[in-house]
């Protein structure tokens, strides 16, 4: 009997608790939606597993002392299990749940507001926590389980821990004052970057490292005069006439008055935005819901970013 607990089923324990509560096999059967013989069979199986009688059968049904003790413990366990199952079902049906998302600074300022608005409108019962960070910190946030998902300008570097899903294909634009000599152009050749006073955003970001390699392959080396971390700093410098900022096209969502964005060409410099997650960790229903909203919003509004 040492391993008899492994053979005891939840149905058997529910039957015992119901018999204890109703003092009747018939009423217990009605409560559980079973036949009276099925209840009797479940109790017999349970008694065989524990090696002793648990129910006193007669005109009035009652439990032995050990039967009452087991029923009391089973009742508490069943309540805990039922509560846990209800929580799981509520989460799967999006009646409750939470998701934590690590977002790079640029994406947080330009893309996240639209996602949050749509997410809360579609799933008001779900909680959402934003982890604002540098894009190169997103992996650590995922690995440490501080975040379920990540959104940012990440490039697939063959990391088997992280799974990336492209959301939008952004590209680099030059952001300049309206009175800049190039502001009237429809596009600007990337070769002029060597002559302009350039403001670079977060040079250690994976997207920028890829862009630098792309430019070097074309023998183009921008004249970088300022390196900044925050999008607001870059825009402030542009407004002050300190140069042109090399920013993703979707940064125009936060562009202040008096500034114009001109596309860079020859070559087009990619600035993709990806959804990141741990490759070996399944997403919760809330995280799946957030990912679905992010896809819909970004691919709908920024497909040609």
TrEMBL record:
InterPro entries assigned to the protein according to its UniProt record, in alphabetical order: HTH-type_LysR_regulators (IPR050950), LysR_HTH_N (IPR000847), LysR_subst-bd (IPR005119), WH-like_DNA-bd_sf (IPR036388), WH_DNA-bd_sf (IPR036390)
Keyword Transcription regulation: yes
Molecular function terms from GO: DNA binding; DNA-binding transcription factor activity
Keyword Lipid metabolism belongs to the record: no
Keywords per UniProt: DNA-binding, Transcription, Transcription regulation
Domain HTH lysR-type residues, every copy: 8-64
GO cellular component terms, semicolon-separated: cytosol
Annotated coiled-coil segments of the chain: none
Annotated SUPFAM superfamilies: Periplasmic binding protein-like II, Winged helix' DNA-binding domain
One matching Pfam family: HTH_1
Gene3D superfamilies membership: 3.40.190.290, Winged helix-like DNA-binding domain superfamily/Winged helix DNA-binding domain
Similarity section: Belongs to the LysR transcriptional regulatory family.
Name of this protein: HTH-type transcriptional regulator GltC
